[in-house]
Amino acid sequence: xxxxxxxxxxxxxxxxxxxxxxxxxxxxxxxxxxxxxxxxxxxxxxxxxxxxxxxxxxxxxxxxxxxxxxxxxxxxxxxxxxxxxxxxxxxxxxxxxxxxxxxxxxxxxxxxxxxxxxxxxxxxxxxxxxxxxxxxxxxxxxxxxxxxxxxxxxxxxxxxxxxxxxxxxxxxxxxxxxxxxxxxxxxxxxxxxxxxxxxxxxxxxxxxxxxxxxxxxxxxxxxxxxxxxxxxxxxxxxxxxxxxxxxxxxxxxxxxxxxxxxxxxxxxxxxxxxxxxxxxxxxxxxxxxxxxxxxxxxxxxxxxxxxxxxxxxxxxxxxxxxxxxxxxxxxxxxxxxxxxxxxxxxxxxxxxxxxxxxxxxxxxxxxxxxxxxxxxxxxxxxxxxxxxxxxxxxxxxxxxxxxxxxxxxxxxxxxxxxxxxxxxxxxxxxxxxxxxxxxxxxxxxxxxxxxxxxxxxxxxxxxxxxxxxxxxxxxxxxxxxxxxxxxxxxxxxxxxxxxxxxxxxxxxxxxxxxxxxxxxxxxxxxxxxxxxxxxxxxxxxxxxxxxxxxxxxxxxxxxxxxxxxxxxxxxxxxxxxxxxxxxxxxxxxxxxxxxxxxxxxxxxxxxxxxxxxxxxxxxxxxxxxxxxxxxxxxxxxxxxxxxxxxxxxxxxxxxxxxxxxxxxxxxxxxxxxxxxxxxxxxxxxxxxxxxxxxxxxxxxxxxxxxxxxxxxxxxxxxxxxxxxxxxxxxxxxxxxxxxxxxxxxxxxxxxxxxxxxxxxxxxxxxxxxxxxxxxxxxxxxxxxxxxxxxxxxxxxxxxxxxxxxxxxxxxxxxxxxxxxxxxxxxxxxxxxxxxxxxxxxxxxxxxxxxxxxxxxxxxxxxxxxxxxxxxx
Length: 872
Hints:
single chain; alpha/beta; Rossmann fold; Arc Repressor Mutant, subunit A; 7-stranded parallel β-sheet; 6-stranded parallel β-sheet; 25 strands; 41% helix; 15% strand
């Protein structure tokens, strides 16, 4: 075998040129992968960040390619892709392509020509795409969306059918999403296209159940191999809390400045992960203002590609003191050595926390170090539990986190297949059966998609204008217009159009508008992008933050914003964006842990505080604060436990209205759906007129019922029950899933799901960057609202409505709720009548039927702080 610089212990022959360069010594994990990896089937390589997974997967694939190309008996081989690398992020494609070129230069013998590397993303110019299709290089690095576009090209057999190995990077981030299903369909089509099915290799961070990830990547469950690292690095996690204050941003700035300057100048930088772009921009501006000499590098997805590249160059040079990032640097982009990772607030998932902290301590015998910087006291307990679980390498399982069979996405792939060449139903069925995201009966899924695309609704009813036509048992695209529509819509990412922000240049200020309208992008002057609706709020003369600097809008139109630097302070600070949701397993753990704390509290708050300090990385002051908070809850009401449902009743407005706080072991998304189920069953049993004064508000671990007219009291009195007993009847196990689907039918969530499904299935054109030409099918003020109303009233409904209705409740939510409803006969419902909200419920910061102005203390709540950030 031709690779040089690799030890013969792993079965790769040394070259005569190796004396010039020291021999590459693989790590024990890499050596094990080299020995055990199979030449066919599917292999999942799972290991902590920085374990060398890329080399472990790529070097055997490169060795296989070189062996097939340059052995003595080899015949000339036609050009084409041999190694296909798929990455979830464009930034990762850029980083990985450069890394692969370095690996090739170090390991490919001098007497053999080095294989070239091509990268293709949505940012790749059309000229380079055309060059690749005419002269494909052996190694291709791309995204799932760009791969789907390549598979829709008529010449795909020329450059893709030679693929020997497919390597999917960060597979754990793709697998539980529709993007994972999208890639799975692309790989299934590629497998049929190639002479022999390519070897599939998935790279993943450490996960709790790697065999599930391997099954989701494989064609067949019988050809699965999992190679997991035995080197589990237990991270060192600290918790630092900030006292509640209106000036929390100043306190965060002081802490980060002290942390970055406490080391020597030669120390590695600090990496700070924040939850939203708004927070990243504000913190970068604040840090730069506090210490002008502090080198702060900002990186997030809304910055222009050139600015992100510049940021990565600065990071790799080792010049920054602090790196500020959203999730854009969470996955495997190479950022070099990092001293410490700081997480501003808890990330909501243990696996995400471990992934981020793993960006530090990447070398051998180094320990990842992380700091949870907590701004809100009510998040302290979650932070402590997350840190304790993380240091024990406990991770959420992913066994049920896969989407419903995405028939709308199947429509997209069928159209892409038809663009490449007409196909028969048998040929489509052949590759559909190779995707684990479409379990049996696949023939029904396929027939539903084909019927929709040829313009037939279910059972022969009228559907959409046809996208496909059938002739001689072959399906083909009906027009070139459909071709263009498909190529514009490929992929599952449904985002609102982004408005570019262009820097005003003195000589070009008057030309920018003309350049953009004429279709000539001026990327050199592009600072970044903002959401369409946020852009509408920025008027000429307004100042806003972008790339950590203050800009003043000086011109532009609905297609772009022209801005110039400003020395003043920003006025518009609110970027759209939400904090990531909490995982259901973490919520369950948090609920259960509070039950353990309740038992320790029997010995007193001091005993509980000492136990918390031992079990979790708390400082004494923080453990005392949490113990006091738990003690207050137990004294005023009680600490809810997993075997019961606690309902706290509060009379408001002098007894004319009521609030009911229900403590539940679920994240906000599930609690919100339970609130919708409650309202639906009240309406179903007692009529619409009685529900006018009842509403619900949900948060993590809680659901609040707001009864402004005491309707529940009136109904329960007529039934000789208490209001809590009445509420319990609305959460019975009987027909909960059909009732919940009915409760969500026609809701704003349903409209959003329909919009996504309608775009994916090509029922309507994709969103346009021109706001005057956009097709809106969701929201309250869209002109095409009647489209949803007309489609939803069809009997039977069209495929996008069927798919949207199915996705109203995800499979993980169904699993969680199924268990909860099945145990309702064993669960005790407890009632507490209180004069005001309990300490637990106060942290929910939900609306109340209580009248009056909020107190001064309300200014310090989580809701007000988040609203100030633009997160609410």
